[in-house]
User: Fold these one by one.
Assistant:
Number 1:
Amino acid sequence: MTSDHFAAAELARLCAAKGVRHAVISPGSRSAPLVIAFNRHPDITCLQVIDERSAAFFALGMAQELHAPVALICTSGSAVLNYGPAIAEAFYQRVPLLVITADRPEEWVDQGEGQAIRQQGVLALHMKRSVQLPRLTSDELARWHCGRLINEAIDATLLPVPGPVHVNVPFAEPLYGQIDEGQAGSLSNLIAPVMTEPFILPDHAHWLIGQVSACKKVMVLAGQGRWSDGLKAQLKRLASLPQVTVHTEATSNLDDPGFITCIDRAIEGVHAANENDLKPDLLITFGGAVVSKRIKTLLRKWRPLQHWNVDAGQRHYDTYQSLTHDIAVSPEIFFAQVMNGAQASESIYGDAWRMVDERTRGLHNRLVSEAPFCDLTVFNTLIDRIPGDSDVHVANSTPARYVQLFDRVRGLRWFSNRGTSGIDGCTSTAVGAAHATGRITTLITGDTAFCYDSNAFWNNHLSPLLKVIVIDNGGGNIFRYIDGPDKDGELLPWFEAPHTRSIEKLVKSFELPYYHANDQASLEAGLDKLYAQHERPAVLHITTDALTSPKVLRNYFIQLRTT
């Protein structure tokens, strides 16, 4: 059985045929045909998440892990607008989401009908594609049109690069009718995409190889992403050339002893005496967002003579205001095709960066060992104690920055909502990811972000392998570190926004195991309890002093810079 609304039935059928295996659904009435069609389909698993904003981030976390489109279904009206934050994140992070929204008939828009808003294309600015399915599908031409639009929409979630796609579906009443699938009438063709991969033309590849081989100072900077072993091997070979330095972050998921993996830490070793030796002549960038504001500021100041950005989907991506070459292939193709031919030049550039990195690493270890219990020492312990070969989600904004200061080992995979860098769905994303993978998944979040997204636990799909670490430094503690907000005591509460809520009571209201730490001994004991076996996600609540942590961090960077 399926819905007697052709558009709903075809959506479910074609989604299943194209490999969409999960649908995250929020309750509603106008979406009844979609619920019936998807829930009745044997090849699609439907998950209910009541809060649409949380549901969208839940689906985002699933799609990140599955590398496949996840359908997201809601009713008409303001429910659709709640998808906005997660859609923007998926757009900039290139996560495939198929957003299916039920709608009233278009004739009722602006006519005083309940839940009838201007819904067609309402999220278009952050969608790869937005389509409106026809309401009337009584003739063969309309059905062909409907099926073609559905084919296009599903394929657009992955090609040419992944991202969110919106399918708006108007339904007239009655909504709850069902028919046997064999009675659905003429069905649409399944239009199968043929996967292709562009490459660099030989003459251009030869020129690029020559540039890298001749240049004395080449910096490769990797943004957010999860990359193949082949790409990492190419980067390791490239980093072995004396003229090359490779810089990565936690969310680049490219850690290697041959790379500079703590950019913010290493940059503090740049000063007037060595700046010219460390400034690149050629900058090669790829991947998503870069967390480090320091590297962005420095590269915008330096303005390398050449900047190549490698990206199959984003044109003229000029983060560092120095773009000279826009290379429209995937990083895997670029480094395999071009960098494999690069030869060594007479240079000390790689060694210069390694010397700076080694010096700041030694200072880092001393400063952390001398610091009192604070956010910095907490992260030092967490990096050491999180189980190897597991997933780590870091919330915005201080967690995403602190993890960049520590060497990363043991095969951890790092995730963060750095597409838009908002705090609004960090927990829901981790909850969805943990459900999809069945792996130990640790979320490191702040107290404000945790409270903001507490509805993440308002569903029945919570993995017991999810471990949540809440670092409670009094709410929005980053504003005590950023220059400006902390200088005005009257305005600081508007930025810092202390929440005054009880984390313990909030956690226990969802019947989750709760542990607390407020010093090094209780932190270590709390981590042992957190990673013990539980039947539901467990939460470790760590309280640090609101004044001590920013003071220690400021001094940390001063010491790296001046010692």
Number 2:
Amino acid sequence: MMLSEDTAPMLPADTPYLDWARLQQQPTAATASQLIPALVRLQADGKDTSAALAALADALLAQEILMDRDDLEDLGLLADAPQRATPPSPRDIFTVFIAARGFAATQSRLSCAVEFLHLGRAIEAPEAAIALTPAPALAEDTAPIPPETPIVAVIDDGIGFLNTRFCRRDLRRHAPARYRTRFHAVWLQAFQTIPMPSYSPAYVQAGQVLHRRDIDALLALGPRLEEEDSYRRLNRQLLEPGAHCSTEFGFTHGTHILALAAGADPESDGPVQDWPLLAVQLPPEAVDNTAGTQLEPCIIDAVRWILRQARRMNDHSPVVINISFATFAGPKDGTKPIEAMVKHLLERWQVKTGRQARLVFAFGNARRNRQSAFATLAPQVAQSVDWCLQPDDFAPSYLELRPLTPADLSRLTLTLTAPDGRVQALPPIPANSRRLIRDAQGRSIGAFYHVGARPSAPGVVTPAHAVLAMAASTGAPVTAAHGRWRLTLAATGPNDLPIRLEVQRGDTVMGYRLNGRQSYLDAPQAYGWDAETADYRQPDSAGPITRAASHSSFATAQSPCIYTVGAARGDTLGPCLYSPDGAAWTVPGPTLSAVADRGTALRGLVASGTFSGSGRALNGTSAAAGVASRLIAQAFADGQIPPPPGMAEAAHLVATYGPQPQPGRTARQGAGVLAPLRQAVAVSVV
């Protein structure tokens, strides 16, 4: 195949999102203090990992890589740790930190020892040699946890860990304050390492972990505690200047979701008061990057950290983890790296510990956002759809193209017509390469990628697909024109080519400074009468725009450990307008649904704001996932989790904690609807 001068290979293990961001930036030399985290697994000859471990040990001794203390211990590479009874498995996932300067050479040398699964954003690590996660005894100074008591964890943006909804009365004699925290640890993730002298020996880690004693020391200030000032001081230490500091605002998504999942009045005697908590606060830069480029590695690391902390806390409690973040586009077959790795981590943890873990994902809110299209391309018959880039968009826009049979990608021909009428043909290109898209002045304003099949977790391969990346429409040195970019698609060969198009999420998170504006798809057949909302926004089945598979791309891994949650209205128990559809080729719908809106006029569920005594209302499948997390934890506490897990468990939860009777369910509601317990939406003012 002849390649044009605009066609070039992608970097190994790279994604179009990272590669296009790099192409848009001015070239700068990597600093000596930058480390790139990479999720990897051992290469093995059968089950023998000895050669891989030896190569890894050599790289550590040569200071080519750094590793987390926990990972070193798991691999048997920590000098002061007890020897492992069994050798490490090639199915275990761990992280290596490689200096950004010379990264490609180190990655090449390590390729015989490890398989690279996912790369993360570089972190600043000014120390020459660091160990990136401490291992204090979390059970220290902690009352025993009864076997049936669940550990509840949340991975989210902005965790108001000083809020009294996450405290209990301190009944000890001579207690220094009225309340003690229910948190055993909170990891405040950041893209830099922070020296932490509180423990011996001193350590450095990516962000900061606050343990029970740290939070209790703040709570001991009693009436003198200024929550906002405490968060502000932490943010100044952790975050770069100009970064969004969620915990300095009255509403934070993470605080609200955790309050729905496990918040309680500290003056009450309810059972939730005994639930221990863990939390990971995601870096604001990752949250602001809604396309998921920086978010997904942070979430994977957060799940690993939570499962490790749960093992340290005790050897019996079940764990319920809530993740209410999502991206739109993806394979939606369970092979997206975040899906495959989280599933692998949960199931492997259950096998190793003999304990139960449940992870709750929000199913998404994009049903009516025109993010998806589906077309069956007949040979040599072109079809068109418009991709609308919005003005005042400070973030790049991405569109994924995925044939139902990945090998058919080589048969796809694409013509891109700019808003000014300029036409550029994008013929097939080799796997793992990109072709630049240029404007009338010859400047690079976009790129077309062919991403080959690649491993995403042990035994899992993400299929090949194509991605269109377009520059921001404003705020960048070189911008793409806003307006309608017409995609004309055709197929070569004798057979039809079914293909789906999905716009990647690119909007601005609620509360953040305006950055991205969501691009969307359009076609003349997208304006039919919608009886549900009495407007003309119903896509015609004869056109390419569809609401099918409008759910989160995080929510398709099939595992009895994973729940996906849609949103229902409290007045009718029917699905909320925004709660997505599934499809025949992906998942048919969520595992179950939970009430997230009280009615047409009463939107959302009320729970705690960032600061003690405050309250806010929030709707969406995030709120529904918070309710579901609480009721799953309640089922563990009540002994109401029956075998077998999976859909039978979901149906049992609906029968036990759902409103009775329930109206006829739809595919958008899964096994049925859960209703929030009254205390889940109460606001405590103390």
